[in-house]
Design brief:
The protein is mainly α and about 550 residues long. It has helices at about 20-25, 40, 50-70, 80-90, 105-120, 135-145, 150-160, 240-255, 255-260, 280-285, 290-305, 315-330, 360-370, 375-390, 395-405, 410-420, 430-440, 465-470, 505-520, 535-540, and strands at about 5, 30-35, 75-80, 95-100, 125-130. A 5-stranded parallel sheet has the order 3-2-1-4-5, sandwiched between helices. It starts with a strand and ends with a helix. About 45% of the residues are buried. It binds a DNA duplex (15 and 15 nucleotides) through α15 and α19.
Length: about 550
Amino acid sequence: MAKVIYWFRTDLRLHDSPALAAALDLKPDCLWPIWTWDPHYVYETRVHPNRWQFLLDCQNDLSEGIQKINPKSRLIVMREAPTTLLPKLFKHWKVTHLVFEKDVDAYGRERDEKIIEIAKEQGVEVIVVNGRTLWDSDEVVKANGNKPTMSIKQLEAAAEMLGDPQKPIPAPKKLPNLGTLDVIFEQNKPSKDIFDKNKHNRKSKDQSYNQIAGPENGFEVPTLEELGFDENSATTPIRGGEGKALQQLEKLANDSKFIMTFEKPKTAPTQFDPPATTQLSPHVHFGSIGVRKFYWTARDIEEKGNSSGPPQSLTGQLLFREMYFAAFAKIGAPFLRTEGNPHCRYVPWSLRSPDDENKKANEWLDKWAHGQTGFPWIDAAMRQLRQEGWIHHLARHAVACFLTRGGCFIAWERGLEVFEELLLDHEPACNAGNWQWLSCTAFYAMYYRMYSPVSFPQKWDKNGDYIRKYVPELKNIPGKFIYEPWKAPKDQKPADYPEPIFDFGERRKICMDQMKAAYEAGKYGTDINSYEKGPSRKKQRTR
DNA sequence: ACCGCAGTTGATACG
DNA sequence: TCGTATCAACTGCGG
């Protein structure tokens, strides 16, 4: 008689879930679909209200989806950290099995190892199933000679060895009833001195831990109000939920021309109505779309036509995600920073530490983060990001290059933190990997290829319609000045738009020279304690 | 080993 | 006003 907890994390869906299928294979007597409301996410991760809203959408939709299959079940949200909560549930609810989807995120792995150990002690069987990625990232690493995948070629070669990803499976038709929901134990509240990284976004104190089963005592999904956010704080039109995700995917599947001709570098970052790419990334992050479902939908159509294929095609984009997951899986927590990361080049950026008191650099960072640099293309992208939680991939390239090697020369980790807060699709592996790519510290090396904040966007948007939408101060400026308003004559220059923070041409040269010097020094994140005088990595390397 | 090539660019010169 | 060639000059990869 199996009594099973299915632990939902970043797999907020019923379709294409090999882990949920494994739980149902146990033919459970009862099954608890549980979400643990973890202080690590609530306080220790930067999350904008836009992303909270998306997550709550996903949870509400999932709970409804479960109830549609079995009206006597629903998503059970319990407000406590999993490492203290699950052992109590095991004991008091007489749980026999715990099932969840595999996670290779540095925090996730540590959390899951603890849980697995405790479960073993209590005689609870744990079943972990790969589902978040197309291939188990640990298997990818093994197939890559036990090394992190640092190029798309390496990922493709490893994937070739592992064979095609599994085909997606349909949602279950039946779900078991819930077991007991008696809470005959104390709630462990988050420590009082835990640092709340989201305090600046809250109107009032977070109330989500008041009761373990929520304010209605029904294990319900929390609300933005409970989290202390103003009701108008979620400004994005992009909403979550498996239902929405499947609709979006179906629309995509019916547009085979879009899929067959898709080449990421050719899509326009300035296009906004509708955007030039699928906007499925937040669903991929929260698991409201299954990555296998997405992959096979795209691949079947790519193969029927004359698609360019990976890496530029739609499936290619998912392969980049696999590459970053496998790199993170192997490198672990140091992948999220330069320090201690043997694969990340050391560059003497400004603000290498968040407490660095470089006044000018801090001012530039702040203006960059809030879309006030005086470069309309950069500001438009950063304002769209803050407002909507999503910008096109190439816009991310442009603003990331601008903050790091192509303008401000500020440490990529400072930009990563801003993206962590604002992106709906924030995925630690992809975010860190892309910041390393754009700052030319790993994955990519052509630092002399620099995005111009003036000429790059003009390839797609000569008139600057994108700027006019997101930087309303410039709505009526003539097209020939829209990317360079500082060149406009006084009477045509809007008074409420800032002057540029620097002369881009000058900064371009300074950054390029510094990057050249950093490449010649050849030091990496593991040289960080000795980088002023330590031996050059270039000379040590035997290749 | 060595060589040539290609990779999510920009500025300029040319017909 | 275009499209295209060229240079700048790093790595990983394949022949």
